[in-house]
Automatic annotation (TrEMBL):
<feature type="domain" description="Zn-dependent metallo-hydrolase RNA specificity">
    <location>
        <begin position="270"/>
        <end position="304"/>
    </location>
</feature>
<dbReference type="GO" id="GO:0004521">
    <property type="term" value="F:RNA endonuclease activity"/>
</dbReference>
<dbReference type="InterPro" id="IPR050698">
    <property type="entry name" value="MBL"/>
</dbReference>
<protein>
    <submittedName>
        <fullName>Putative mRNA 3-end processing factor</fullName>
    </submittedName>
</protein>
<dbReference type="Pfam" id="PF07521">
    <property type="entry name" value="RMMBL"/>
</dbReference>
<dbReference type="InterPro" id="IPR011108">
    <property type="entry name" value="RMMBL"/>
</dbReference>
<dbReference type="InterPro" id="IPR036866">
    <property type="entry name" value="RibonucZ/Hydroxyglut_hydro"/>
</dbReference>
Length: 317
């Protein structure tokens, strides 16, 4: 059995760095070579000399960053392997948002799997997660605590049913807004979805690259005020917070974070991350020899797997 390199991937100021391939993953400041797991702003930034990502991830990035030279973008197809130096790399669907990827890296007979953000719940707006085995699982731990269990998204979206008011629904512009649109279309067909102008181009990209037809209308003030009170207006966080005195609407914010449910009219726990049981199931399928945790607190996982195998935070360089 090949030896695991404890420093194969380490946390540096710029991002996660692999010195054995001389590349970064999800670097936040410009580097020479950067692998991008998905297009959310805390993972995807511009300015790198060479970037590897899925086609749709680049589409989202080009919508946000207007001046990205084509020569800097190396488009990656799910399941196709390529090499950077001596490291063999494969992008695998992560199920987080459209185009999101886990990144499998094999070096000297050992496979290291960087999950990025991922979810196991069904979501017709993005590629379903694929599970592969790896020697080292490098997992996000955003909600890695036993007391956290994400409810079924269908049950949550049905909380909006039979409400005799329009609803202002706060959510993130990329991924969450499109998932909510699909859920409302499917389970609340009597409701009309209005989307904020910042979300509209992202919905359009989902329609171009995804396999889920979305029904929605670009927001305008007249549409919200006139006619039946059957509108659900999707707005990004800053806009949602600016409407704290809005009247004649019910307010909800779709998130797995409890703090974002406070002072709203409806609690709506819809998350695009794994919860505790999801992580345990994922680990049982990946069958790693070690787990390295990122993006959260891994202490509960360390306690749970104590005596079975090593669980630790990723090393810092």
């Amino acid at each position: 059995m090949s030896e695991i390199l404890e420093d194969f991937l380490v946390r540096k100021h710029e991002g996660y760095y692999c010195r054995y391939g001389q590349f970064y993953i999800d670097a936040l400041s410009p580097v020479a070579v950067n692998l991008i797991s998905h297009a959310h702003g805390d993972h995807a930034t511009a300015g790198h000399r060479l970037m590897y990502a899925t086609d749709v991830t680049f589409a989202f990035m080009k919508n946000k960053f207007s001046k990205m030279p084509e020569s800097s973008m190396q488009k990656v197809v799910f399941g196709e392997s390529f090499r950077i130096g001596e490291v063999e790399i494969v992008f695998i669907p992560a199920g987080h948002i459209l185009g999101s990827a886990q990144i499998s890296m094999t070096y000297e007979g050992v496979t290291y799997l960087y999950t990025g953000d991922y979810k196991l719940q069904e979501d017709p707006t993005c590629e379903p997660i694929e599970i592969v085995q790896a020697d080292v699982l490098i997992t996000e731990s955003t909600f890695a605590r036993p007391e956290i269990a994400h409810p079924a998204p269908v049950a949550e979206i049905l909380k909006l049913k039979d409400r005799p008011f329009n609803i202002m629904l706060g959510c993130y512009t990329l991924g969450k807004a499109q998932r909510l649109t699909a859920l409302i279309n499917m389970y609340l067909p009597e409701r009309e979805v209005l989307v904020n102008h910042k979300m509209h181009p992202v919905h359009r990209i989902y329609e171009q690259y995804g396999n889920c037809k979305l029904r929605y209308t670009l927001y305008n003030r007249k549409a919200m005020k006139d006619g039946l009170s059957n509108k659900i207006y999707l707005v990004p966080p800053l806009t949602f917070n600016s409407y704290f005195r809005a009247t004649n609407v019910l307010k909800a914010f779709a998130s797995g974070w409890e703090r974002l449910q406070r002072q709203n009219d409806i609690e709506l726990y819809i998350s695009d991350h794994v919860d505790w049981e999801d992580i345990l199931h994922f680990v049982s399928q990946v069958k790693p020899r070690q787990i390295w945790t990122i993006h959260g607190d891994g202490r509960a996982l360390q306690k749970h797997f104590d005596g079975q195998f090593v669980v630790r935070d990723i090393l810092s360089a």
